[in-house]
Amino acid sequence: MDILDRVRPILAEQFGVSLEDIQMDSALRSDLGYDDLDAMALGAALEGEFGVEMDEDDLESCDTVGDIVRYLMENAD
Fold first, then answer.
1. CA-CA distance, 22 to 7, in Å (whole number)?
2. Does domain 3-75 have CATH number 1.10.1200.10?
3. Environment class of residue 52 by beta-carbon count within 10 Å: exposed (0-12), middle (13-18) or buried (19+)?
4. Per-residue pLDDT of the chain (77 residues; tens, 9 = 90+)
5. Is the pTM of this model over 0.90?
């Protein structure tokens, strides 16, 4: 299972969207409804799944789902 396949269910649950709506080029803010209040919960969910701490600053630098996937590829064990 690749990282995108593991990230999609987390994002679907966090933002109440269908898995089909989550693609690499999906914009976190405009497509999924991400806002700054979501950062802590999303960071904790990603940390639980991947064992990598992703804080608010890390999430702030991500504009798309692909950005999250790339971050995790570079930083996850």
1. 9
2. yes
3. middle
4. 699 999 999 999 999 999 999 999 999 999 999 988 888 899 999 999 999 988 888 888 999 999 999 999 999 86
5. yes
- Max CA pair span of the chain: 30
> How many other C-beta atoms lie within 10 A of the C-beta of residue 2?
8
Give residue limits of the domains in the chain.
3-75
The 3-state secondary structure of the chain, one letter per residue: CCHHHHHHHHHHHHHCCCHHHCCCCCECCCCCCCCHHHHHHHHHHHHHHHCCCCCHHHHHCCCEHHHHHHHHHHHCC
